[in-house]
Automatic annotation (TrEMBL):
One GO location term (cellular component): cytosol
A GO BP entry: xylulose metabolic process
Name of the featured protein: Carbohydrate kinase
Family according to the record: Belongs to the FGGY kinase family.
Length: 459
């Protein structure tokens, strides 16, 4: 008796690396997690242990193949972006996979932008806020001009999802969701690589672009397995929504970063939006997605620690705080409200002694984060007719956040969206035709509607 048909998806985050098996109804039937100790590059800066990751992919697949209850039909990948693996003509990495958080030398950045139209115009054309190593195209430029010996040996520069695909298929390719994610490589006006890519000869080491639903045969013969090309994680998370909903919507994908994504906003980025960390992604069909991001998950974590230390409580307490409208109505603004600085909320400047208890302080924290979120999301709502907001990830389970967001956006329908691992699910769905004999289910996403009916002071 043959096993259940499944697709295997490797979901590679900065911290956790996961393997999921989805059945034909896109239910998770197997899950495995791993964490690796980072290594360091030649400058001593932390970076991904690419060899551990490579071995883990093969070991995990071998383990799954031995499970007779499953029949693996396909494999795909989703991973964080802005990360390149440089391989030689035998497919071996030539150097570390440099961390996108690694500081970028000012003199190289200045040289680059002076050659290619100036920082402002370049950033608008490529929809890539100037972010140093977070712009993976600039990582390529840095390698060429600071390590020419290594650069000359590069056969291909592969974004991480495509490197993982290459390990199993031996086929080097590029994918539009990785190229179109604040890389500085893509000209959103021309819908092709920016001129600098050809002028620097970088195009010689960029593999051919393959459609996101493409599949390859595996390196190991005698197997009908199909190997996908992989997706950038933010674009993968959007896929289940695009296949389930036709009406315009905005997705707020929450985690360490809270990223607002509007696939229905096709207006070009302004310089002001770019400077405010607004950018464009390319979704799996190659269409632009206007996006804005704030570091709210990280701020929430840090400020919850401050609250728990001040009030002598356990931080775990704040994982499931009940929304209290009376507290919100009590938190009237004073004449001297602190002003948020950039992408950080006002809460860090608040005196915790001003609050009666920790729950009151927590409601103020989330109020301040929602104010920040509304400003960020508002940038990508302007000029579109989207009336629905879906929130997934950590904050979708936070009742205080969800109620306050609904109150702050009374003209929108606000939903907490629940599904099993949206990033991995998106990577699985993108290969649906290649492995799944059933139609796509219409109930992939569970929605919980929040109604804003409580007065909230405008802080």
């Amino acid at each position: 008796m043959s096993g259940i048909p499944v697709i295997a998806v490797f979901d590679v985050g900065k911290t956790n690396k996961k393997l999921f098996l989805f059945d034909e109804d896109y239910k998770i039937v197997y899950e495995k997690s791993a964490r690796f100790i980072e290594t360091v590059d030649e400058d001593g800066f932390p970076c991904e242990n690419i060899e551990s990751l490579r071995l883990s992919v093969f070991d995990s697949l071998s383990e799954v193949f031995r499970l007779k209850q499953f029949d693996v039909k396909a494999v795909n990948f989703s991973s964080y972006g802005a990360s390149l693996v440089y391989i030689d003509d035998e497919g071996n990495p030539l150097c570390p996979m440099y961390n996108y958080l690694k500081p970028y030398p000012d003199h190289i950045s200045d040289d680059f932008y002076s050659k290619y139209g100036g920082k402002q115009q370049f950033s608008i054309t490529t929809a890539s806020p100037p972010s140093g190593s977070l712009n993976s195209g600039l990582q390529l430029y840095r390698l060429k001009h600071t390590q020419p010996g290594i650069y000359k040996k590069v056969e291909y520069a592969l974004h991480l999802p495509q490197y993982l695909s290459f390990l199993l298929s031996g086929k080097a390719c590029s994918d539009i969701t990785s190229i179109g994610c604040h890389t500085g490589l893509w000209d959103f006006e021309k819908r092709s690589y920016h001129n600098w890519v050809a002028q620097e000869g970088i195009s010689d080491i960029l593999a051919p672009i393959e459609p996101t639903d493409s599949v390859f045969d595996p390196l190991f013969p005698g197997n009908a397995l199909k190997i996908g090309v992989g997706l950038h994680d933010s674009s993968a998370a959007l896929v289940p929504y695009l296949v389930n909903f036709n009406e315009p919507f905005v997705l707020i994908s929450t985690g360490t970063w809270c990223i607002s994504l509007n696939p229905f906003n096709h207006q070009p980025l302004s310089n002001g939006e770019l400077m405010d960390d607004c950018l464009c992604y390319l979704q799996y069909e190659g269409k632009p997605v206007k996006a804005a991001r704030v570091f709210s998950g990280n701020e929430h974590e840090q400020q919850v620690k401050r609250i728990s230390e001040h009030f002598g409580t356990d931080a775990i307490k704040y994982r499931d705080v009940v929304f209290d409208a009376a507290i919100i109505n009590k938190l009237n603004p004073s004449n001297n409200q602190p002003t948020p600085q950039g992408k950080v909320s006002a809460f860090g400047m608040r005196d915790l002694n001003a609050f009666e208890n920790d729950i009151e302080a927590y409601h103020q924290l989330v109020t301040d984060l929602v104010n920040l979120q509304v400003k960020s999301t508002g940038m990508i709502l302007t000029g579109t007719n989207a009336k629905r907001i879906f929130v997934d990830g950590g904050f979708s389970k936070n009742k205080v956040f969800m109620n306050l967001l609904a109150i702050a956006l009374p003209e929108m329908e606000v939903f907490a969206a629940s599904m099993a691992q949206s990033t991995a699910l998106g990577a699985a769905i993108s290969l649906h035709k290649a492995w799944n004999s059933k139609p796509l289910p219409s109930n992939l996403i569970e929605l919980n509607y929040f109604v804003g009916n409580t007065h909230v002071p405008s802080n």
